[in-house]
Design brief:
The chain is mainly alpha-helical and 148 residues long. The protein is built from five helices and no strands.
Length: 148
């Protein structure tokens, strides 16, 4: 595999792994929220933010992938290809893991909304704590890509 292929693999990993994590995370909280809505459809607004929060990691991975593709030229060296791949790993891995765990935290927040809808923002705040690590993964990826 040449430098182009290695760099493309890194770009793909950023989008794919973060996107898979988001899909799983949204699936986890979405199931819980649907159960809550089956009992009280009025809680949709309180649950919506909790359901969409794990999706942000997919967007972070997409952004990183686009930035990585901007580094790929037909003449990229194998060394620079590996640099792009490794630069994409922070958001790829942090996005995958944090989105899944954020989905679990958001599902717990949906349970909170089921019992006390006025406390929804407390569930969101816990979920935002998990989000922090996805943001850090994105920032590190951006800084690393700037050095390629």
């Amino acid at each position: 595999m040449d430098g182009v292929g290695i760099a493309i693999a890194g770009s793909a990993m950023a989008a794919f792994l973060a996107g898979v994590g988001s899909a799983i995370g949204i699936g986890i909280v979405g199931q819980q929220a649907a159960g809550v809505l089956s009992e009280d459809p009025e809680k949709f607004g309180s649950l919506f933010l909790l359901v969409v929060l794990p999706g942000t990691q997919g967007f972070y991975g997409f952004l990183a992938s686009m930035l990585a593709m901007g580094k790929i030229t037909p003449s990229i060296s194998m060394v620079d290809g590996w640099r792009v791949l490794f630069a994409c790993l922070p958001i790829a891995i942090a996005g995958l893991i944090s989105a899944i765990h954020q989905g679990k935290v958001c599902a717990a927040g949906a349970n909170l909304v089921a019992k006390r809808a006025d406390q929804a923002m407390k569930g969101v705040m816990y979920a935002v704590m998990v989000e922090t690590y996805a943001v850090l993964g994105l920032i590190i990826t951006i800084f690393l890509l700037a050095k390629v």
